[in-house]
Fold this sequence. Notes:
Number of helices: 14
CATH architecture of the largest domain: Sandwich
Number of strands: 25
Strand order of the largest sheet: 1-2-3-4-5
Oligomer: single chain
Largest sheet: 5 strands, mixed
Family: Belongs to the ZPR1 family.
CATH superfamily of the largest domain: ZPR1, A/B domain
Distance between the termini: 93 Å
Main location: nucleus
Shape: globular
GO molecular function, one term: zinc ion binding
Helix content: 25-40%
Keywords: Metal-binding, Nucleus, Repeat, Zinc, Zinc-finger
Radius of gyration: 27 Å
Number of domains: 4
CATH topology of the largest domain: Jelly Rolls
Subcellular location: Nucleus
Amino acid sequence: MAGTKEQIMDVRSVVEAVTAAGDDVEIDTPLYVVESLCMRCGENGTTRFLLTLIPHFRKILLSAFDCPHCSERNNEVEFAGEIQPRGCCYGLHIPSGDQKMLDRTVVKSESATIKIPELDFEIPPEAQRGSLSTVEGILVRAADGLGALQDERKKVDPQMAEAIDRFLIKLRACASGDSSFTFILDDPAGNSFIENPLAPSPDPSLKITFYERTPEQQAALGYLADPSQLGGQSDEVSSEGINNVPHHLLKEPHGSVGARAGRQAIAQGNSAEIAEALFRYSAPEEVMMFPSTCGACAARCDCRMFVTNIPYFQEVIVMASSCDACGYRNSELKPGGPISDKGKKITLHVENIEDLSRDVIKSDSAGVEIPELELELASGTLGGMVTTVEGLITKINESLERVHGFTFGDSLDEDRKSKWLDFRARLDKLLSLGQPWTLIIDDALSNSFVAPATDDIKDDKQLTFEDYVRSWEQNEELGLNDMDTTSADAAYSSADAAPSEKADD
């Protein structure tokens, strides 16, 4: 790297320098060189560290080791930024003979797991640490690692060595494109990516899902300090298990342990902004407070909850908590009442500046579509949020930059780069209202809402609501096909019938 400054420092100085670096990393960041032990020959080599910021992606720490005695070399990519609110899972189907699929860029963080279901093969996080490579490069590296000790295995366990040889043939066939397979990249930290060359359009071969982390995954990422929060508790609690519970947990108020486990479902957001937006409609009559635990530092904090009614919409439940110890804040907006019998499609024709200020409630089951841009976001892409039309477009822009990673960077070829720049210009043009455009929110659970611009919602000609019957596939995705409420309905019916019978008597 031209102009990069190199200086010899000890490990402590490097750690302090990296920790003190701000979010904006300058291009001339020094290259730190540390003397370190070579694990192959036992002599001293050198490790170089470079902290840099990849445009529209992450702040990363590059490290490269070189031993002049045995020529051992390795490199690693570590993420210096924050852990994402949710984990991510990328699934890429690669047909045989498609070399372009194998050339896709893959960013694998140190917490990511790679799986190939067809081979029953898994690369755990500790096997290949953070790296920037391609699909082919990751598979070739895994094959080389498995074959490195084959000579020793043949002497100790010939049958095992023979089985690994047969497996390596299948793995190398996938790496060369001779066999079709599915490449799955699962990262609880949410900091891994697989390139989408068709971006911003969806790729039919690439499936991206986001999920809430389990307590075990939270603990692996360093979020939880208390082992009692991990799953593994059974319904039958022995006296020995109770005696092993830390003494301070036994003194916690009733309900705090349950609240700690329940916070996994709380969406990430800004509590103050959500509360301020909802107070425009009606102030809560009663704010309930119950003890909870911070999701970042495990300190005790309070969670506030209130129920409010939004005109022309429905009853909603707002939960918000903040930690005085570390400043972590989270919030959740959930619909109240029963599950709607039908889905709802909301269409808003944006024509003037006032339309950009309309309040929008988007649930985590809603999808967003803008026909003028040929842009369609699947349900759950942005999570649940309370915002405005302008804020929703801004969130879409930020989400596209984050999800597609390097596709906004300098390494992109000119054709695809011009395509991205044109799309971003068209996206920004929506906010400048160069021409009218349409916002469509499709929510299968009918839990989303766009505020009308008139006192009577029927007088708002730019805003339309359309109810529709959910398909079997939508009910299956939402888990409604397996939901059986006949027992509860019978119990409620008998309870309602009992008072009427007594009245007749």
